[in-house]
Fold:
Amino acid sequence: MLQNTGKLAGQTLFITGASRGIGKAIALKAAKDGANVVIAAKTAQVHPKLPGTIYTAAEEIEALGGKALPCIVDVRDEKQIGEAVERAVQKFGGIDILVNNASAINLTGTLETSMKKVDLMLGVNLRGTYLTSKLCIPHLLKSKNPHILNLSPPLNLNPIWFKNHTAYTMAKYGMSMCVLGMAEEFRGSIAVNALWPKTAIHTAAMDMIGGAEVGKQCRNVDIMSDAAYAIFGKPPSYTGNFVIDEEILKTEGIKDFDIYAVAPGNALLPDFFLDEAEALVQNMGDPVVIPVVKGSTAASGPIAETFNIIKGVLNPDIVKSTGGVYKFDLSGEHAGVWFIDMKNGGGSAGSGEPPVKADVIMTMDSADFTKMFAGKLKPTMAFMSGKLMIKGDMSLAIKMEKMMSMMKSKL
Structure:
């Protein structure tokens, strides 16, 4: 891991969304140097599903030697941000680093995304980042080594990153466009950069999206806080960069990245918006070919053969551990509708609509379906690459991987 050098001692960081996750990790890293941290976040009371508040984060920061100023802030509210900025300047004398970390996510398609969700994502990600930057910049211009760091991805216009969640992509890319524009506007005065992880990062939000099992395919938040710390050590001339966490840490001499893995040795899930994620899926091997009986129909083709195997591995233990009804809407050479019931009795599977309402609907090509059930393509990887569309409970897609691992030797 990247060692602290004390370079942030006495500097003031204004971090949005710093009550938990990556934002708090960056705050704690800075606190070890003796930095001042403004915790600008909404959570003043304990959330029923998410850990931490601005006050518990402040306690952790001060326990490590930093100074904290917890501020109740909704980044969509100009008055709240303005008041937090003024409190920071009054208490600490200025602002040296702004971290735009607050973000809202909803991974649904155009027809499934309510305008309330669209407004939330655009309001927090795009408008909130722009507004917080606008109000902090006058103070950053007075700093000796000012930085704005947005937790946002490189601007990758590959349509695959838009097709399944256009609203989220637009909102997140709005943060990245702030980097593109402000870096040029304030070139020579303020370093403005973006930071994005190469792999999925394990946070409470990730658990909510993908379920607890997805954590085994993630790195922890320390890799992002170390990468941010490396960026803060750069001069103002280091600007306009879309930094990937692993890449900058390699330049800092980090060679062992297993220290950041939640479960060392497990395959890591690449994050959104990186070409490597798509390429990894494309290169995972050819689809499994199951012999087709001459004159086969949907009931006797390769998909039917796969479902016969699925029926053979279903048992009460799998049903109990999964607890979901899946509907598969398959396109391509072997198009059709199929289901797996891993919620009722000893489980069942077959062609047609499920006997009860599906908890999750998966839409994909039939060739990718056979690859997925042969262990060649993980559901999470298929989803992130655009090969799989999921409606319903995302965590059930993760749980289904357990059954797939049991089938691997049979396919």
